[in-house]
Amino acid sequence: MRLTQTKAELRAAAAIRPRAVVMTMGALHDGHAALLAEARERVGPDGSVVLTIFVNPLQFGPTEDFDRYPRTLASDLAIAKNEGVDLVFNPSRDELYPNEPSITVHPGPLADELEGVFRPGHFSGVLTVVSKLLHLTAPDLALFGEKDYQQLTLIREMVCDLDMDVDIVPVPTVREADGLALSSRNRYLSETERDEALVLYRALSAGAKAGMNGPDAVLAAAQAELEAVPSVKIDYLALRAPDLGPVIGPGEARMLIAARVGLTRLIDNISITLR
What we know:
- The model has no long low-confidence stretch (mean pLDDT 97).
- The protein contains nine helices and nine strands.
- The chain has helices spanning 7-12, 30-43, 73-82, 93-96, 115-118, 122-137, 149-161, 191-209, 215-227; strands at residues 2-4, 19-24, 48-53, 87-89, 141-145, 167-171, 233-240, 251-261, 264-274.
- It is an alpha/beta fold.
- Beta-alanine binds at residue 59.
């Protein structure tokens, strides 16, 4: 496994094909390991897997946790090596943004909904760094977790609209045995807060079970679970079509939730079949 920290080193690395990239902000956990394992499976033993580790300042708001976001490079590299990563790109801020960006990616109207209401500008920062990293790593495949479903949807739209020559591969959310979605921010939770956070998955599961009774029943079932834990402050609970447009008729849908547990903000989502 090779560690690179400059764009010149990255470009000089052997361009073995096919190539898959997994983009992260570090603080890797089993969810990231699942992305890396899927990447290795898809490119086969003769392909290459690239892992990027970069805490992207453009996607953090002024009151968010950029400075305290966990940075655990040594353990991240150990996980990467265990999952068969060939190349790690871990640039500094100055390396990736030598100048304050004057040109960024405009993510369109979907970026102003759901997460965008509470994190204005977030998705412009995400799509800008994803675009840069796709250009620098030149992959055939890029794998993203479904836990960040709105992000995944917007990345797919960007790749389609800008004719980027890469396949976007979604990977299902990885959960703890009790249903809590894996997240680097889970380490912020106290033991009590972690127990409280389980209400997010209970709400999503209750909504999924109510799918046979239609959208109103789905939202009511989820809301009933959430009301049982008032210490968890809900930013939004939404039911959308798979492309995050409005739900129209029966079929597949996606329920999304964001909430604050203590000082930690968590998101989750689940696929629902409406009848």
